[in-house]
Design goal:
With 270 residues, the chain is mainly alpha-helical. The chain has two domains: 30 residues, no CATH class; 208 residues, Orthogonal Bundle (MetI-like fold). The chain is 70% helix and 0% strand. The chain has 13 helices and no strands. The longest helix has 32 residues. It is globular, with a radius of gyration of 23 Å. It starts with a helix and ends in a 6-residue tail after the last helix. This is Sugar ABC transporter permease. It is a multi-pass membrane protein. It holds the Pfam family BPD_transp_1.
Length: 270
């Protein structure tokens, strides 16, 4: 009985999380006349799958998708490269002030992005990067304190004997990292990649601040174009929302076991 009640509670809670997604999908499939019926109609009379294509073609979403992919791929690659190098340095190199410097890096996580938003805008404006994709890509190549912490914790769980054996064979520090450490960091690197991809894919405030030209817009900014001064195209918003939600859901579905393994393996050794 206890197990049955537990499963029943989990099913009820899952329905609460599924309901908004179900409503978005059914709304995207409704006709305009059924959008604002009261009481609301959950299941449309006719499933209008053409709504997805119509909504996609109202705005240049092919261009928005291209811009989003560029930002997501390059930002994720930048985080993987920079955070791996910095984490390796903190985990394996002994130098004066290492712990203090690491604490300073961690302390940056307490500074919200809203505080640095204006200084960043002024800096990017001085560099002439406003209305380009550079402000959304370049900062990722300087690392993230959270990802550096995760990767450092994982590297510290690896025995130093592996490094020493490779060093005896004539490998340098960078060779040890690329040939020994990185192949063992698979789950943690996948974790970092998934988190960064999700962040870039769903980012709205960054593109809103730094981009002015529609040809540079990402998917999230393109989605906001359906909200006008005198009304909201709810049907198109729901259709595009469902479409752009597919890649993150697919990535999370295929990478969830690596995400769990990556999180579990980063807190073993401090």
């Amino acid at each position: 009985m206890k197990k049955t009640l537990s499963y029943l509670a989990l099913i009820l809670l899952s329905l609460l999380f599924i309901a908004p997604l179900f409503w978005a999908i059914t709304t995207a499939l409704k006709s305009p006349q059924e959008l604002y019926l009261f009481p609301p109609k959950w299941i449309p009379s006719v499933f209008r799958f053409s709504n997805f294509a119509d909504a996609w073609n109202i705005q240049p979403f092919n261009l928005f998708l291209k811009n989003t992919l560029i930002v997501t791929v390059l930002s994720t690659l930048g985080q993987l490269v920079s955070c791996t190098l910095v984490a390796y340095g903190f985990a394996r190199f002994e130098f004066k002030g290492r712990n203090l410097l690491f604490l300073i890096v961690l302390a940056t996580m307490m500074i919200p992005w809203e505080v640095t938003m204006i200084p960043q805008y002024m800096e990017f404006n001085y560099l002439g990067w406003i209305n380009t994709l550079k402000p959304l890509i370049v900062p990722s190549w300087f690392g993230s304190a959270y990802f550096i912490f995760l990767l450092r914790q994982f590297i510290m769980t690896l025995p130093r004997e592996l490094d020493e054996a490779a060093t005896i064979d004539g490998a340098g520090k960078l060779t040890v990292l690329m040939r020994v450490i990185v192949p063992l960091m698979g789950p943690s690197l996948i974790l970092v990649a998934v988190f960064q991809m999700m962040s870039c894919w769903n980012d709205y405030l960054g593109p809103l601040i730094f981009l002015n030209d529609q040809t540079k817009y990402t998917l999230t900014l393109g989605l906001s174009q359906f909200k006008g001064m005198y009304g909201v195209d709810m049907q198109s918003i729901m259709a595009i929302t469902c479409l752009i939600s597919i890649p993150p859901l697919a990535i999370f579905f295929f990478a969830q076991r690596y995400i769990v393994g990556g999180i579990a393996s980063t807190g073993i050794k401090g």
